Amino acid sequence: MFTNYLKFAIRSILKRKVFSSINIIGLAIGISVCLVIWRYIEFELSYETFHEKRERIYRLTSSFYTDGAIEPYTGYDLGPALKSDIPEVKSFVRTHGNEGILRYQSPSGAVVRFQEGNVLFVDSTFLDLFTFEPLMGNPGIALDQPSSIVLTETAARKYFGKEDPIGKLLNLTEGWVQGDYQVTCVLKDVPENSTIKFDFLIPIHNLLSSDFYRNNNARWDNFFTYVEIHDQAEMALLQRKIPGFIGKYKGEDKKIKSDAVFRFQPITRIHFSIDNQNEGTHLNTVYFFILISIFILGIAWVNYINLSTAKAMERAREVGVKKAVGAQRIQLIAQFISESVIINLFGVGLAIILAILFLPILGNIVGRNFEFDFAQPGFWLVALILFIAGSLVSGFYPAFILSSFKAIDVIKGGMDKTRGGLSLRRGLVVFQFTASLLLIAGTFTIFRQIRFMQSQNKGINIDNMLVIKGPQLSDKKGIESRLIAFKNELLQSTSIAKVATSLAIPGGAVNIYTLMRNLQSGAESAKGGNIVWVDPDFIDVYDLKLKYGKEWNVNIKSDMRAAIINESAVQAFGLGQGEDILNQRIVAGLDTVSIIGVVRNFHWNSMHRPYSPLLLLPEKVTSGSLSIKLNTTDISKAIKDIENKYTIFFPGNPFTYFFVDDFFNEQYKDEQQFSNIFGLFSILAIIIACLGLGGLASFTTNQRLKEIGIRKVLGASAGSIVALLSRKFLSLIIVAGTIALPVLWLGSNQWLERFAYRITFSWDLFAIPAVALLAISQLIVGLLVLRGANINPAKVLRAE
């Protein structure tokens, strides 16, 4: 019996090659999208799962200084205090990122030197808490000595080549900590599914004992703190102890922020948190992609159901004859299900090939090296589930429809219409159009929001702004005069308009985030604010608009001890209006500074968040970064000239540069990736829908060829026939648009809530995608109907 079912199924598929091909291709694209999205989601959900203690590791987040906004940063002393006061906390680890120049001199005298930005200061227990695979050395004691340094495999190869790095010395030149460090361990490269990124690990002891830290520790609230909880600890009980813990350590500021809290964030959830500063993925993005895969697979299944039920009348006589000779309904159902199984089997096979081709495209979009692990049971389980589900979902309804025909009605020719099948087909076509329209409109909305953010007036001029990393010199005494001389030398070039130095760059992190308040206000009014150190030329170079007061005069000592603030700081700290703001004093950490000027609000970072209080503090010159305003169209020549001068002034320092506009737009990388992925899958969904639409249009035209022939004989034009047969598809698109509009409005508004500055939902966000979909569908239907309308009526009517 099974052999007969298989034989009949193959014969039926071969007999209807066009419709079978449409079904197989549509199913293959839908299933391949599901496999690709499954691989992407599997990767996203795997973040930090490689740590052996992952169930007991939490990161501390704080709303202590942020008016309820959650921040991942904490103070340096939080970890030790938690371990001391709360029994549920077993251990802690603090991390603090840094950068600097690392240098290795081989016994032969050759020197290898690079500017490194992935240096991480950590507690000595870091490798006890986190699981990073060691390749050389003992990770248990690798960070016990202050002069130790741990490298990743790539970093070790970069400096030492094929040499054994253990015991070798690396010299670190950096603003806070410098000196010789002995390599004690080499780790396998940090997995891509980790939010903790580093190339070098250095004991945090060195940072906490540095001169900068001792002088400024009260303002250092930008550490990451991780804790390990005891196995039997109850998180609910631990969280209830936090208010009392906070009250104990408020000290003189006991009135400040009575609603302050610390929260324990599971390490496996960090990647999905919107406060994550390490390329986090919001969980809603994963949900969106799951929804997209359901839409696309649903469209493919709809194609199969629609085409199968549309062909029902063509197979009615087959069913009638088989029933007349004794075939049971269950046998007919089994036959039609077997056809669905074979088509889905071919579809899955082709889908695996397509998924292998699509996966690198997705990898390029998100910047990952994705590949399928065919030895993993999970892949084949997903493929099997999609195969079984597809065979049943797409095959059951057509099988029941086809097997329900009565033999006597079919043989007598009494079955002219299948009203139920016709209504279902219309409903499923509406679903296809609705899903396609939502995907197109969603892509368009994301594109418009990204363009809006990138084109908005930032309040700061970053056009043609080149930034080079400042030099790191062991001789700190002469660096100021050399930097000033270098600035002056650059300004002699006609291709350079302006130059400024600063310790941070727009689009990146600020120098310090700390507690601030008006000196005249009580401690309870304190709020979080940002501090950046810049030289006096920074205001002019970035074209910041001074609203009140004046810029710094480097020759006036009082100026160089005062701050320029933004309008957000004026409002946050209640500093009044107009010239009355000037000379008022702000307490920032333990320091008190007077206000010399106010600049209009500008976006230091992206438009995800609103303006926040910002203090610009002056330095005569800094070695952090040099911002160079170019005044030339020959960019490459200007960069080469700058590099030559840099090498002369700062020999041995790597020349590293970037453009601020590119750097700034990196903040929208996640949205750009989301848009590209959304767009890719929208195109695939449209392709599947068009395949099904083309099949239906072709079938409808063939069913009405005699009617078309008669109309042509009576004088109807080809255009009028096309308009007549296309009308019903047009009405289905209108219904789909009516359904899609409220769904799009709700979904778009929910997604746009992530941004402090966003577009509003307007008619064109829906109308343009709807018109585009209408044009595509009508073009396909029109071409197929036109082909039928151009057939010679004599050929069609001759049989009559």
Describe it for me?
The chain has 800 residues and is an alpha+beta fold. Among the domains are: 64-260, no CATH class; 422-457 and 661-800, no CATH class; 467-639 and 650-660, no CATH class. It is 49% helix and 17% strand. Helix 1 (2-15) packs across helix 11, helix 2 (17-45) packs antiparallel against helix 20 and helix 9 (283-310) runs antiparallel to helix 14 (419-455). The longest helix has 38 residues, at 329-366.
Helices and strands in order, then pairings?
Layout: H1 2-15, H2 17-45, E1 57-62, H3 78-85, E2 89-105, E3 111-122, H4 126-129, E4 134-137, E5 148-152, H5 153-160, E6 169-173, E7 179-187, E8 200-203, H6 204-208, H7 211-216, E9 224-229, H8 235-249, E10 262-266, H9 283-310, H10 316-324, H11 329-366, H12 377-403, H13 407-412, H14 419-455, E11 465-469, H15 479-491, E12 496-502, E13 512-518, E14 527-534, H16 538-541, E15 546-549, E16 563-566, H17 567-572, E17 585-588, E18 591-599, E19 614-618, E20 625-630, H18 635-649, E21 657-659, H19 660-665, H20 669-703, H21 705-713, H22 718-752, H23 763-789, H24 793-797
Parallel strand pairs: 3-8, 5-7, 14-19, 16-18
Antiparallel strand pairs: 1-9, 1-10, 2-3, 2-6, 2-9, 4-7, 5-8, 6-7, 11-20, 11-21, 12-20, 13-14, 13-17, 15-18, 16-19, 17-18
Span from first to last CA? 40 Å
Structural class: alpha+beta
The strand order across the widest sheet is: 2-3-8-5-7-6
Mean model confidence by pLDDT:
82
Number of helices: 24
Query: How much β-strand is present in the residues?
Result: 15-25%
Taking pLDDT < 50 over at least 5 consecutive residues as the criterion, the unreliable ranges are: 252-258, 416-421
What is the β-strand count?
21
Give the overall shape: elongated
Largest sheet: 6 strands, mixed, barrel
Whole-number radius of gyration?
34 Å
Helicity level, as a percent range? 40-55%
